[in-house]
Design goal:
Mean pLDDT: 87
Shape: globular
Strand order of the largest sheet: 2-3-1-4
Low-confidence stretches: none
Strand content: 15-25%
Distance between the termini: 44 Å
């Protein structure tokens, strides 16, 4: 794997000089590679992970398993792209197993998510069935621990 991409994925807030030292390249070479990756569409933006539970919540998140009928010549791509274009959708992934797609969405309430599934997702051509799973608590996301404070391992268990 590309060490530069691994460093950027772990912490994109590092300075060019810090990244260059970590990948054993000059800052200029790193800057050029980053620009190339942006132009080629390899780098798709930067994100900050926020523990919304610590600041009053961020509505409701849900993962929706979707069974679809793939189209001849297009497979799952056409329906997956149509779902991905819906404003409410945070992510779409092709899955193995009992369902074909996993759709991540966010909403202000359980009712808003249910409305999305009933009125926007389920009626789409080629959607055969859905199963909605509401996120109750996030423990780890994108490699970062959530909702847990650092615990001193020297403390005894009560």
């Amino acid at each position: 794997m590309d060490k530069l991409l691994q460093v950027l994925e772990a912490n994109a807030r590092l300075t060019l000089e810090e990244i260059a030292a970590m990948v054993n390249e000059s800052a200029e070479a790193v800057a050029k590679r980053i620009d190339d990756y942006k132009r080629e569409g390899v780098l798709r933006g930067t994100r900050t992970l926020v523990d919304w539970d610590k600041v009053g919540g961020n509505g409701v998140q849900a993962l929706i398993d979707v069974r679809v009928s793939p189209k001849k010549g297009h497979g799952f791509d056409e329906i997956a792209e149509a779902i991905a274009l819906l404003d409410e959708v945070d992510g779409v992934q092709l899955m193995s197993g009992g369902y074909d797609l996993s759709v991540a969405i966010s909403g202000a309430s359980f009712q808003e998510v249910a409305w999305f599934v009933a009125r926007r997702l389920s009626p789409m051509d080629d959607v055969l069935s859905t199963a909605t799973h509401f996120v109750l608590r996030t423990y780890k996301k994108d490699g970062a621990l959530f909702g847990t404070e650092h615990r001193d391992e020297r403390q005894g268990v009560l």
